[in-house]
Amino acid sequence: MNRQCDVDLTSFNTFGLCSRARDLVVFDDVAQLPALQAVVQQAGEVFVLGGGSNVVLAAQVEPLVVKVQSRGIHLLESRPDAYIVQAQAGEAWHDFVQHCLEQGWSGLENLALIPGTVGAAPVQNIGAYGVELEQRVHSVLAWNFKQARLMELPAAQCGFSYRDSRFKHDPAGTWLIVAVRFALPRPWAPVLDYPDLRQHSVLGGAVDAQAVFDAVCQIRRQKLPDPAVLGNAGSFFKNPVVPQAQRDALRAQWPGLVSYDVGQGLYKLAAGWLIDQCGWKGRRDGAVGVHERQALVLVNHGGGTAQDIERLAQAIRADVRRHFGVELEQEPVQVP
Question: Please, where are the H alpha helices in the chain?
Answer without folding.
Answer: 33-43, 93-103, 121-124, 166-169, 195-198, 209-223, 244-253, 271-277, 306-324
